[in-house]
Amino acid sequence: MKTVTLLTTVLFATILVQAAAVSAAPASRKAKINASEDIDSLGGNKELMEMAQRLHPESRSRIVQDRIVDRRNRVEFGMSFGGMFGGDAYLDTRAFGASLDYHITPRWSVGLRYLDFTNSLNAEGERVFNEYNNSNSVAGSGRAVDIDYPINATMGVVNWYPIYGKTSFLDMGVTQFDLYFLGGGGMINLDSGSAPIYTAGMGVGAWFTRHLTARAEAKWQRYNDQIISGTRTIDATILSLGLGWIL
Prior knowledge:
The protein is of the alpha+beta class. The protein has three helices and eight strands.
């Protein structure tokens, strides 16, 4: 009789434990989902933030949900410096730039780009040039350095900012940044004359304050130049860094 009573007690206790586990499972899943939503909302849950601060009162939490810099109906001026890669094989070309952008919304902006180019012969260009001078001085003939260097370019562009985020640099504050794509075209002035130019690329813009900005861009560009042997197509890439100011 005692054995039967003991078995009954154990069985009853087992049923109670299983029932408690089943009833607790949905609550646990719900708590997990709520915690996940709180994290995904970038600090939208005030109670969660207060709890975190109570656990670590010596730490200061800085969470920003909205955009720091509003770029609706604002004008941005900028200056940049970069280098051209993949252009003329005999030239080292650098580009000093000026930009003007009108931000329609945080996702879209239209702008103007002006580039002023400086050119110099690279090592291969100097070798061919010296070889040409030596051949002319000895035999009166030689192969000239066949180049058509860029002088300046003006282009209109459209910028699209699909990716947005924030980061903290050395715990000095929160910086807003956007990854963007651009495309456009215009005219380029060469030693031989003017020609159409087309550009496409991508970049990252950092908005440090309501006015101070910085950009890093990689732009592909295509145009036709004119050399002694005829017209050729130049595909080049310009990598640039710049600073700007938003009004």
